[in-house]
């Protein structure tokens, strides 16, 4: 438990050596602002929402969703209880702490390879399944006492949002109704990242440059900057929009769309002013599921770009490549 950054970071004045990244891996001082951020307003017509989603997915690999129907009070309560969790004494969090990735509810620091890493990421993470809710609640932390109630309500509402977004994507790509049901969205995980204030953000990293291996990620990043997306050869900062969710296209959606949508390569930087907590909701295929370009998107004029691949095999390649977007996606391209 002494490994958790949140357990000891408030007591130090300088960054420990094993958190200092080599110069070529550190965040750059200059990050380009995104002057026209991709925003989808769900109070607009379905046609307009679909068009905005497809354009954003093609050009950026992510977009922000506004007017989504999830109350600000519920979002605030969820953020409060998750921050409270990370603020609890280490001995209270001990029951959830494990580096064993097979555990369904796990609290860990940096990555699962912590013991073999040369340099650690400045973050703690709590991950657990969140659907079906009745099968998951007993796995979740018992403290804070309102954790299961509030996070349960939050998970239910975010699931409704993600299903609505997947329906819009399905319609926009002209796929058969319910295409993303069943095996392609079998697993729903809540992944909470906590980045304590850092004594020297210029030397540290919250998360490495990577893409998400899943279908889609719904992220609430609160009101503190930290997420960067790589676009057109430069890093852009994703400014928080009050009460908005960020939707990140995953690698499986890029494959299914036959490159009509692209996965967003992203990273996380730290700051020295405030702790930053984000809530990620991951939609993941079953491990046995085979993913390939949708048949309706492939014809003689639009040949399949990617080969069919079992998701568990993709995850293995993802781990071997450390989530590197270009090498990973190139590996699954069909030879032409």
From TrEMBL:
Residues 186-285 form the Fe2OG dioxygenase domain. GO terms for molecular function: dioxygenase activity; metal ion binding; oxidoreductase activity, acting on paired donors, with incorporation or reduction of molecular oxygen. Keywords: Dioxygenase, Iron, Metal-binding, Oxidoreductase. The keyword Transcription does not apply. It comes from Actinidia chinensis var. chinensis (Chinese soft-hair kiwi). The keyword Metal-binding applies. Belongs to the iron/ascorbate-dependent oxidoreductase family. It comes from the Eukaryota. This is Hyoscyamine 6-dioxygenase. InterPro entries: DIOX_N, IPNS-like_FE2OG_OXY, IPNS-like_sf, Oxoglu/Fe-dep_dioxygenase_dom, Plant_2OG-oxidoreductases.
């Amino acid at each position: 438990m002494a490994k958790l950054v949140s357990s000891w970071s408030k007591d130090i004045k300088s960054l420990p050596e094993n958190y200092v990244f080599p110069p070529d891996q550190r965040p750059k001082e200059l990050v380009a602002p995104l002057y026209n951020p991709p925003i989808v307003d769900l109070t607009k017509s379905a046609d307009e929402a679909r068009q905005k989603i497809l354009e954003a997915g093609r050009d950026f690999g992510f977009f922000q969703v506004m007017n989504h129907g999830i109350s600000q009070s519920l979002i605030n309560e969820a953020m409060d209880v998750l921050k409270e969790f990370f603020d609890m004494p280490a001995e209270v969090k001990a029951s959830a702490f494990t580096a064993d990735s097979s555990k369904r509810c796990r609290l860990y620091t940096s990555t699962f390879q912590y013991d073999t890493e040369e340099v650690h990421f400045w973050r703690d993470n709590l991950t657990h399944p969140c659907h079906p809710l009745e099968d998951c609640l007993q796995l979740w932390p018992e403290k804070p006492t309102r954790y299961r109630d509030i996070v349960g309500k939050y998970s239910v509402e975010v699931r409704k949002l993600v299903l609505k977004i997947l329906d819009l994507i399905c319609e926009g790509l002209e796929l058969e109704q319910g295409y993303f049901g069943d095996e392609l969205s079998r697993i729903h995980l809540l992944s909470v990242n906590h980045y304590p204030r850092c004594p020297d953000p210029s030397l540290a990293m919250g998360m490495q440059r990577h893409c998400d291996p899943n279908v889609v990620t719904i992220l609430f990043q609160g009101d503190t900057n930290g997420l960067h997306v790589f676009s057109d050869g430069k890093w852009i900062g994703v400014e928080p929009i009050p009460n908005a969710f960020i939707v990140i296209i995953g690698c499986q959606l890029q494959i299914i769309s036959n490159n009509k949508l692209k996965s967003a390569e992203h990273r996380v930087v730290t700051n020295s002013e405030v702790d930053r907590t984000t809530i990620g909701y991951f939609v993941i295929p079953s491990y046995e599921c085979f993913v390939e370009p949708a048949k309706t998107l492939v014809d003689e004029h639009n040949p399949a770009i990617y080969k069919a691949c079992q998701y568990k095999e993709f995850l293995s390649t993802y781990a071997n490549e450390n989530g590197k977007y270009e090498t990973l996606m190139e590996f699954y391209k069909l030879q032409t």
